[in-house]
Design a protein that fits this description.
The protein is of the alpha/beta class. Helix content is 33%, strand content 13%. A seven-stranded mixed sheet has the order 1-7-6-5-4-2-3, with helices on both faces. Helix 2 packs parallel to helix 8 and helix 11 packs across helix 12. It starts with 33 loop residues before the first helix and ends with a helix.
Length: 429
């Protein structure tokens, strides 16, 4: 085993049952700004001749001599805990909840994190409210929940449409409606980018005794803090903007209630959805540039959206940062620092037009996912599962120079509108 963290004196309890972010902040207080916090998050106490960020700890088991406390020991078996996870979990907690104690549990993927929350909190006879326009795998996961005897209600993100579903409909036998046990929010929603009032929905859910989980993947903890807005769980795919290089699959759940965190952690142990130490280390390393990446991508995404507004072939343009976007006022109130995300969505006239546009791009990869330093775009309808038009484009803005990226997009749109122009350019005519 290599690279074990020797952290600041900021934890209570043990690492096998829960690690809390408490006590001294690594930068000396809790008033540091986002960039400083991202660079320093989760680092151990400086040690002579040791790296600032220790390398990954590759271990399936740990030395347990006679007399070792198997219940309170920090590391006993590799499915329970790992020093590399510890550093990353501490770092994410500092970003998601810099002003209050929190615990983070990391997973092998975003879906691992989503499934852990839903399956650890819901059981037969419970009811859950999910977004109908969220990440496409929520729908089949909802069907799986129904198969377990859980009532699943869905409504769109926009207009706080999930709110009426918290109470449910009267039972078929005339009995009282079944209140929801858990509300799942995705704001901004992927891929349509609608936004809901997280604080309002969280207060309404808590008044009815329901838990609230927010998928914060698109916003990142630098763009939005769901726990500050009243959520019980902040959940995200770290595969996307959090790590931002397109080379890591990761997910996480952050909670302020240690009992909720313990239940999610216990689910991870039973289901085995653990991240590899190399992936955890790569993710932690990537956090140092999070603020630089997020700020650059958000600014360029807004520039691209503004450039698309006057294109006659573009309809359905959405980006929460646009002052004309239906969600802008609400997004500006609950998102942070002008960071409205790196995704722009829009619709081209049909599938063929969209495919010509994607093929004409030179600085943008035709790929799924979002949040990486290299811009990507795709015709989202090719996957199925999303209720979007055939010409719907989800565009993820990377870290390229804004002028270059916008010019490439506008040129590709011109070529897609006039296929002969693209052919002339390819042959030099």
């Amino acid at each position: 085993m290599t690279g074990e963290h020797k952290p600041h004196d900021r934890t209570t309890g043990d690492r096998t049952t829960g690690e809390r972010v408490t006590g001294e902040h690594p930068t000396g207080d809790r008033t540091t700004r986002d960039g400083t916090r991202a660079v320093r998050a989760g680092l151990p106490e400086p040690e002579a001749y040791a790296p600032a960020l220790p390398g990954p700890a590759f271990a399936a088991h740990y030395h347990l001599p006679d007399g070792a406390d198997l219940l309170q020991g920090p590391y006993t078996y590799g499915r329970d805990a790992n020093p590399t996870w510890t550093g990353l979990e501490r770092a994410i907690s500092e970003l998601e909840s810099p002003d209050a104690d929190a615990e983070t549990v990391v997973f092998a993927s975003g879906m691992g994190a989503i499934s852990a929350v839903l399956l650890s909190q819901l059981g037969q006879g419970d009811a859950a409210v999910l977004p109908s326009d969220g990440y496409q795998l929520l729908a089949p996961l909802g069907e799986r929940l129904r198969g377990y005897g859980i009532e699943v209600r869905t409504a769109p993100t926009g207009g706080d449409a999930q709110l009426p579903l918290l109470d449910g409909a009267p039972a078929a036998d005339g009995g009282e409606p079944r209140p929801a046990k858990l509300l799942w929010i995705e704001s901004p929603a992927n891929p349509g980018l609608d936004v809901c009032d997280i604080r309002r929905l969280a207060e309404a859910a808590h008044a009815r005794g329901a838990l609230v989980a927010v998928d914060n993947t698109l916003a990142t903890p630098l763009g939005q803090r769901p726990l500050d807005l009243g959520a019980d769980f902040s959940v995200a795919s770290g595969t996307k903007a959090l790590t931002g290089h397109g080379d890591v699959l990761l997910g996480y759940v952050t909670c302020r209630d240690p009992r909720l965190a313990a239940s999610v952690r216990a689910w991870r142990k039973m289901a085995g959805g653990i991240p590899g130490p190399m992936e955890a280390w790569l993710a932690h390393r990537s956090l140092a540039t999070l603020q630089l990446r997020v700020d650059r991508q958000a600014a360029t995404a807004l520039a691209l959206a503004e450039a698309l507004r006057d294109r006659p072939e573009v309809t359905g343009l959405r980006h929460p940062g646009l002052p004309t976007d239906p969600a802008h006022r609400l997004a500006a109130a609950q998102m942070r620092g002008g960071r409205f995300g790196c995704v722009v969505s829009f619709v081209l006239p049909d599938q063929e037009h969209a495919e010509r546009f994607l093929a004409a791009l030179r600085l943008v990869d035709d790929a799924t996912s979002f949040g990486g330093v290299r811009s990507t775009a795709e015709r989202r309808g090719r996957w199925g599962g999303d209720a979007v038009p055939d010409g719907f484009i989800r565009f993820s803005v990377g870290a390229e120079d804004p002028q270059d990226l916008v010019a490439d997009v506008l040129r590709a749109l011109d070529e897609a509108r006039d296929p002969a122009r693209g052919a002339r350019g390819a042959t030099g005519g």
